[in-house]
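Quick question: what would this complex look like in 3D?
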Amino acid sequence: MWCQSCKEEYEEEDAGTCKECYEEASETEEELKREIDDLRSRLLFLRLPSPTLDSACIAHSDLLLHAIPASSSSPSSAGAGDSDAARPDTPAVPAHRVILASRSPVFRAMLENEMEESRSGIIKIYDVSYDVLRSFVHYMYTGEALLDEQMASDLLVLAEKYEVKHLKAYCEKFITSKVNNDNAIAHYAFAHRHSAKQLLEASLSVLMDNMSTLADREEYKELVEKDPRLVVEIYEAYLNRQVNTAAGKDTDCSCRK
Amino acid sequence: MWCQSCKEEYEEEDAGTCKECYEEASETEEELKREIDDLRSRLLFLRLPSPTLDSACIAHSDLLLHAIPASSSSPSSAGAGDSDAARPDTPAVPAHRVILASRSPVFRAMLENEMEESRSGIIKIYDVSYDVLRSFVHYMYTGEALLDEQMASDLLVLAEKYEVKHLKAYCEKFITSKVNNDNAIAHYAFAHRHSAKQLLEASLSVLMDNMSTLADREEYKELVEKDPRLVVEIYEAYLNRQVNTAAGKDTDCSCRK
């Protein structure tokens, strides 16, 4: 027989679909591609020019956001934090009430309830560097962010604080794709702190695959010191998996009997 | 052989794909569906609450749009136009500078160049009913509109005037899907007036398929009266098609010789 798709000959045991199903599948693929084109064009329409890039957009802005870096920055972000703290002239990030209020229920409440921020049009965003705030605002307009692991973690924290679910999921997905044995403990603890379920499961899975070396790691010892309950949860999950695997094997055996 | 997709048996002449291509196609379909989910979720994030529906959104608005219906409305929209004209208390439609300026280069220029509209925050939209203006503003925030043929035509005109390309294409696609022998002359003339190429081709094609009854139609006589050049173009296109079809036949014959 001849394959209608790759045009090569194949044997009976390598048969895929009949002609009718092949044609249906081709049509479905075309339809899906048309839908993707349509969605992309709607996205381009709905995407707004970011006030972090577009000066014309700034002209209509009615808010100024100020990044106030944490005085006690975490070791990983100490550099950025300190340099911001040392620059009291860090520029404010312009934005629009209608955009922030529509993307975040926290901003919405703040701007609707005649709070100080609403009256002055100035919002202080604490514990965040200027660069992270800029990326955060950029995302509110475009639904896009340029991520590395540090930026994704910082944005996830901010997204959680201001309840921007889409950004939190976007960052979590990115971090999850970067989980490996070297960073699994740190990501596991981070996921716990910020209720990031997908990241929690991914890092826990990597930890369980490498249980024999877990206790040797420096981060493990730190975690036992700081938050021993999280360590207990790793052992509980591991034991649970062992029990389930054993039960699975028993079922297999009884089937074979 | 057995089809992997519908699980039914088929003969050799009904073979579709080989197994490898079937598996590849299934993977592609899954990938496309994941991409669609991802795009839909980004769309939901970027879609803004419409100020025509969401009262909280109105709170931050910095523009008011007033519909000024045409005094000499076209017959098809006379009803709506008259009723609007008779109601001087037609409410204004609230909006935001940042949104209108980002969707339309015309609004952008108007609002950036310190024109009267920019100073007062009041924009008069001429030759349009309140309902059409409301749908127009709704689309600027959501990328969505509830269309019938009249609304699609009215919105297309407004989209052309304010250079909102995405809305113009959206309306044109809708109207094109409604072209039939009864409305082809009207749509053909409309497409000409508003440089709607896709609609022009679709209506011209329907007209050429029904040339024998064309000259009997009332709309045809009106068009000859109002804009005879457009009628000439129909005949030219028809003749051109006939010549091409004949040339195609000749080529077929010479091939067979």
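Answer marked as accepted. Confidence is low (pLDDT under 50) at residues 72-86 of chain B.
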